What does this fold into?
Amino acid sequence: MKLYFGGPIITMEEPLIAESIVFDKKIHFAGDFKKAKEKFPEAVPIDLKGKTLLPGFIDTHAHLSFAGEMVTQASVFHCTSIDEVLNIISKEVEKLGEQDVLFINGYAGMPIAEARNLTLEEMDNVVPNHPLILRTASTHGTLVNSRALNLIEKEMAAIELFLDEEDRKEGYLRNEANLFAFGMAPKWMNEEQKRIAREAIFNSCLRNGIVSVHSLEGRNQKEDPDILYWIKQKGKTPFDVRIFYQTTDVDEVLRLGLKQIGGCFHCLLDGDLDPGTAAFREPYVNNSNNYGVLYFTDEDLEKFFTKAHLADLQICMHAIGDRAIEQALHAYEKVLKKYPKKAHRHRIEHFEVCAQDLIEKAKKLGIVLAMQPVFDYYWPYENYKFYIGEERAKKKCALRPILDAGIPVGGGSDWPVTEMNPFLGIHGAVNHSVPSSRISVLEALRLYTVDAAFLGFEENLRGSLKAGKEADFVIVSDNPLSIEKKSLEKIQVLETIFQGNSVWKK
Ligand SMILES: [Zn+2]
It folds into this structure.
């Protein structure tokens, strides 16, 4: 048994600050130092020396397997010409084993001077003997050479999917074929790539003080290798993983004994702003004919929600624009009217650009939100103006009105979209680019602790420091409640403790 003292201990309970905390695998006591020593004389005292102790962080939206895989690949994100891209690819070819598939990501992350994709011929010339999978930075398309085309075509045929003629001619996979190519990656990575990917995942969670991740997994609708991996790892990892299977196949999720369904990939209600696919009620200002794209019909969505809801699964769906958010709420409303249930905690992911009527409706229906204030840290509202104009852009990540409505919100990174550091999200929420959306530091901490726990049905396990909960903590360099607000991003995680064991130290 151990006793921490000598620094601010932020409990996220009443009272907010404790002098000491006593724990082994679980927390036994949080409060007065003298009382702790009296009650637990055998506990070994450890001096925090002024450092701050907080509940371990929860990331409510990450894609662990996908992010880990990206780390193992070369990137052409910063290339600005076709020659530069081909140059990087040819260097990667030299490292390949005989049976390897070459994965590269980030195509057209920066504008390419020639303003076009690689041709099939260019790809075949630079990678003649291996399959090449070259992902675009937006992830909405994949460039492939002839070897990869053949491989993908064969796999697709097995489930009666067929390549579009144009896709085959250009070596550029769109829509369903693009999603399919993503799904093949875990099968085609070699053992060494898999090992590096896992190491990157563990490292990313631990050094950022993450003790629980809601990981949106699965690129195949059935028998996904990533999902099977995490199921096998249950209880063996130095952090908890809640698996959200990104499928609409309710029976498959039940067969695997999972409790959560949905996410991004196959569960996108709309796309994103820069490809013009985020769905809005009013048209884009840079293209007055474009309202974005809804990937589900109302009927299909309602059917899926009904089946998942009746199976007692927690549902979560990606929605960026107000029309996609409205579609989700409308479908939830229909299902909940027919089959009322109080503690469903169905979610909407991102809830990025909304309006007051939608906030009120979400509250009424008991919907909870997994949001990413870190997006505002990187992409302030000014970045959205080009697409949707000033007024709507100012409604992005509207934390203040959402919290005022009383909706539980969890914070997340959407890793690999951003890194898993919660202090970047806390910084983004407190220093929001739209002043009327800013929230307090304590509220921002809640997004990654107590309220995040609520989103994952894990509030009895973690999220605050209270006797009976797991001993999951982080020790950090500065007290977020007293540091200058503009410096929140600089706070560093010094140690991560999971179930009473130190699992990472700076
Ligand atoms: Zn996502």
